[in-house]
Design a protein that fits this description.
single chain; about 100 residues; mainly alpha; 5 helices; about 75% helix; elongated
Length: about 100
């Protein structure tokens, strides 16, 4: 069970991830940088069930791969990945507020 301090830090890391996602959407942050940021949010990932970490890592792997190809040659849309990342952030927010 995370402590109050851990939950506070997890919420801060979640806000940083949300900000990074917005920067990525506006072209101010590269896919690799967003992925590195997301994977580095260790307090957040520890505060959430393990499945959240698995899903986030899968999304980051796909996002990094999609950045290597043009939209047409990639098997999944970057827009869909961004939507999935936003859904992940929304569900993580819900989970943290239930704690």
């Amino acid at each position: 069970m995370p402590t109050a301090a851990d939950l506070h830090m997890a919420e801060e890391q979640l806000q940083a991830l949300q900000s990074g996602l917005k920067q990525f959407q506006s072209g101010g942050l590269a896919a690799h940088a967003l992925s590195e940021m997301a994977r580095g949010q260790t307090v957040l990932l520890t505060a959430l069930p393990e499945k959240f970490t698995d899903v986030l890592h899968q999304l980051m792997d796909r996002l990094e791969s999609s950045a290597l190809f043009s939209e047409e040659s990639c098997s999944f849309s970057q827009r869909d990945l961004i939507d999935s990342l936003q859904l992940w952030v929304d569900k993580a927010t819900q989970r943290l507020t239930q704690s």
